[in-house]
Amino acid sequence: MADSRLTGPVRVVGVGLLGSSVGLGLRARGIDVILADASPTHLGIAVDYGAGRAPAEGDEPQLVVVCVPPDVTADVIAAELEAYPEAIVTDVASVKLRVLDELTARGADVSRYIGSHPLAGRERGGPMSGRADLFAGRPWVVAAHDGISYRRGGVVDDLILDLGATLVEMTPEQHDAAVALISHVPQVVSSLMARRLVDGAPSALNLAGQGVRDVTRVAASDPQLWVQILGANAAPVRDILTAYRDDLDRFIDALGDVDAPGARRRIAEELAGGNSGVGRLPGKHGVDRRFTPVVVMVDDRPGQLAQLFQDVGDIGVNIEDFRMEHSPGAPVGLAELAIVPEAVESLIEELSQRGWRIAG
Amino acid sequence: MADSRLTGPVRVVGVGLLGSSVGLGLRARGIDVILADASPTHLGIAVDYGAGRAPAEGDEPQLVVVCVPPDVTADVIAAELEAYPEAIVTDVASVKLRVLDELTARGADVSRYIGSHPLAGRERGGPMSGRADLFAGRPWVVAAHDGISYRRGGVVDDLILDLGATLVEMTPEQHDAAVALISHVPQVVSSLMARRLVDGAPSALNLAGQGVRDVTRVAASDPQLWVQILGANAAPVRDILTAYRDDLDRFIDALGDVDAPGARRRIAEELAGGNSGVGRLPGKHGVDRRFTPVVVMVDDRPGQLAQLFQDVGDIGVNIEDFRMEHSPGAPVGLAELAIVPEAVESLIEELSQRGWRIAG
């Protein structure tokens, strides 16, 4: 840890989801937060919401956190570096190299700028969507670069730790390649898949199950924001999409004559590669072999899930993850509880004794 | 409804997930179920599991349900049509035209065959994964064709309704085009995305959030099964994948020079097309505007979710959907409840009074 400590004031520029969440989180720790936004209306809402105070004459922020859309991030950082010559400036944009390059090109004092990116978000935006715990437990990348010493940037570390996030150090290049792979390319893949649904017959769409819903969920994201993100990280995204397209071409070729020698093997290899890839994702969600699903049938009415969770709690088993599955019009739903394997047998037995129908 | 009623016996060939579920569901309605499987071990397990009985001399099934892998479905149907000249035969394979064509080509008596396909499944296979309610509320396509009268095929309708599924009539061509769009192409898109993760740096994969997990979830599916499915439905899958590839090519081109005239507009249009497509998916999941999310912070320990659901039940609000979000190592999780918009305000107020921290 650096010897500079975050004492504030911290100036947060842009009070959307991320900015207001930074403000709320720092206010909860008693730090003086100064808010700024191009929209006086948004600024007023964020102040009323408790995310910080309006700027005042003579403010001398120790740290500035720029939380504006990617397209204007470099402009705002440059202005803040000039306006507050003693302050360290960071930003939370989801692309890092482009911002640093723009600042360097215009001769900004990057010895006081260190970019960062919290891997946190939610579907809603605006100051009212902010929450103090948005970053809790989430990775927050600090994009180190040669122009700033680790010691000088220490207040950014403090910011991240104060907000409960997990600090991850990367170069801007490493960061941009990483988010291209785990965020930007999946967004494109999902959007293009969802685009195919536009021409689908309603009778076809009515057959949709959880698979296509999962694949296309992020396709509901805001196109205007994503144009900025993809535009600012075009090269890494393009590289991965090109490799994806090459795989896709091979796949389409193999489907052209599935009885040709090697065609089925090629398809199987591509699919097996997908198995390997998804198996590399860490954490609780996705294909997680640390937990075992137990499926319980529940009636679709108030109190049923409450009773189930009450019973599971009474049995003393922790629910690691939970998913509800039910079809429109069906009188019952299926509650899938993910629990540690050791607890499966006793949980099933005890739930059954309490009258629950275990479906798997 | 046809005047032939399903009274049994029903012979189920293949006792994997689908076959054992058909058996369990029919047994629950008191119908005599005869099980058959190429594996005596599997057959024994399914019988012990209560999905039906072993075959006996002189069995005269009214209906045969073929639940074997796609590659051998036509062979097994042909054999069953010959062995039981009075029986109606159906199957549950996820591709319909290829099976019918193969049967016609070999001169099978398709006047007693009507293909079908339940849109139901789960990640686990084998007889022990079967459950009587697997088909409850799920669509089940009957692929009508010219060779069989609706009246004669009536027992298939009865089968579907007895198992609690929703009957959907389609031609084999309509069915295969529909599942190509809502199941087979999403599988390919997801697998190829997951394949890109194979080369990702561990530090990149550690940044993965819910988006990439959702996009790649189905990539964990069994390659051997999917080679058969995709091979049997190659033409419709190829058509959609080719259109997808054309969109992808345009996308990659636009990323090649995002500052070229029209490039950003093209990217935005592709993404907006994805918005439109995902918005067409019906039902509770995905982008569902009928319900509003309420996010509540919960400690990651036994009893917490129980208490939350208890409280929501006491307040008298029905939880339409539920999602748990938490990061490894984080002491709290975020429980996202989907509820009807009318109930949001009072739920938030009452939960807050009970001490819950509402995060959004």
UniProtKB/TrEMBL annotation, chains A, B:
Protein name: Prephenate dehydrogenase
Pathway given in the UniProt record: Amino-acid biosynthesis
Family: Belongs to the prephenate/arogenate dehydrogenase family.
Organism ancestry: Bacteria, Bacillati, Actinomycetota, Actinomycetes, Micrococcales
GO molecular function list: NAD+ binding; prephenate dehydrogenase (NAD+) activity; prephenate dehydrogenase (NADP+) activity
KW Oxidoreductase (keyword) present: yes
Organism: Agromyces rhizosphaerae
InterPro entries linked: 6-PGluconate_DH-like_C_sf, ACT-like_dom_sf, NAD(P)-bd_dom_sf, PDH_C, PDH_N, Preph/Arog_dehydrog, Prephen_DH
Keywords assigned: Amino-acid biosynthesis, Aromatic amino acid biosynthesis, Oxidoreductase
Residue ranges of every copy of the Prephenate/arogenate dehydrogenase domain listed in the record: 8-285
Chain segments annotated as coiled-coil in the UniProt record: none
